[in-house]
Automatic annotation (TrEMBL):
Any one Pfam family match given in the protein's UniProt record, by short name: BPD_transp_1
Organism the protein comes from: Gordonia polyisoprenivorans (strain DSM 44266 / VH2)
Name of the protein: Putative aliphatic sulfonates ABC transporter, permease protein
Signal peptide range: none
Protein location: Cell membrane
CDD domains: TM_PBP2 (cd06261)
Primary location group: membrane
Transmembrane segments: 34-56, 91-114, 126-144, 150-169, 212-234, 246-267
Keyword Transcription regulation assigned: no
InterPro entries given in the database record: MetI-like (IPR000515), MetI-like_sf (IPR035906)
A GO biological process held by the record: alkanesulfonate transmembrane transport
Domain ABC transmembrane type-1: 84-264
Length: 278
């Protein structure tokens, strides 16, 4: 009578269980996550301690508690809400213009070598101009109302989208375009159903970069005789030597930038989900 013995390797894990390496990797990931969370808290604690001991001068670097109190004061007075609404509106309009112009020019340049030869040198020359240097010219052209502020934001947002879109289109496999011609696609249909979807991951990278530059451009733009917005709030605080309010305004700028970046990252994950499943 034959008895079959099934031998199991001692190193093989039963189905459905994690190996020792996977457990260590998961534990390390959790530790790193906690470090990322606790690191800023530790910096704030040291900052507060340094302020309490008098190591950090309050007029130069106010304590986090004082900055929080200043922010609460502005929130209760309604100034913070009005400033956020005004600044967000400028960024939204400026970014919208930048998206349309940047992607539009990127598509034109990416599809045509002649357009590349005509448009790209001029775009690179404009890209080299500093935003601060354009403020006097924009004031002369458009005055001191909302138009120059929005256009400065749009100008900053155009170039990452333009560069990423044109580069992504140039990298599309020529065989795909040939297949589109064989299938009888017209030029607009090719752009809509082949070019834009193929370039979308890199366009979204450009959008994330444009968002960051849009908020940076807004700081510059709101130096132009602003009567509302976060830039006005910061400039007004500077005139009254309110360093705590200046710090709080900068923190709000950073927070808004992080929030909008998170939204675009979520959109990026959603639109490129098919690539991760393949």
């Amino acid at each position: 009578m034959a008895i079959s013995l099934s031998s199991t390797s001692p190193s093989a894990a039963p189905p459905g269980t994690k190996s020792a390496a996977q457990i260590r990797a998961a534990r390390r990931s959790r530790v790193l996550t906690w470090i990322r969370v606790l690191s800023p808290i530790g910096v704030l604690a040291l900052w507060q301690l340094g302020s309490a001991l008098g190591v950090l001068p309050q007029d130069k670097l106010p304590a986090p508690s004082l900055i929080a109190e200043a922010g609460w004061e502005k929130l209760q007075s309604g100034e913070l809400t009005d400033a956020i609404v005004a600044s967000t509106e400028r960024v939204a309009i400026g970014l919208g213009l930048g998206v349309v112009i940047g992607i539009g020019l990127g598509v034109i340049v990416g599809l045509s070598r002649l357009s590349d030869a005509i448009i790209d040198p001029n775009m690179q020359a404009i890209r080299a101009l500093p935003l601060f240097g354009l403020i006097p010219l924009f004031i002369l052209w458009f005055g001191i109302e909302e138009t120059p502020k929005i256009l400065l934001v749009a100008l900053g947002a155009i170039f990452p989208l333009y560069l990423n879109t044109s580069a992504a289109i140039r990298q599309i496999d020529p065989k795909l375009r040939e297949n589109a011609k064989v299938l009888g696609f017209g030029r607009l249909q090719t752009i809509r159903e082949l070019v834009i979807p193929s370039a979308m991951p890199q366009i979204l990278v450009g959008l994330r970069q444009s968002l960051a530059i849009a908020w940076l451009s807004l700081i510059v733009a709101e130096q132009i005789a602003a009567t509302s917005g976060l830039g006005y709030l910061i400039n007004n605080a500077r005139d009254f030597l309110r360093t705590d309010v200046v710090f709080f305004g900068l923190i709000i700028y950073a927070a808004l930038g992080l929030i909008t970046d998170a939204i675009v990252r979520a959109l990026e994950r959603y639109t490129t989900r098919y690539q991760r499943t393949n």
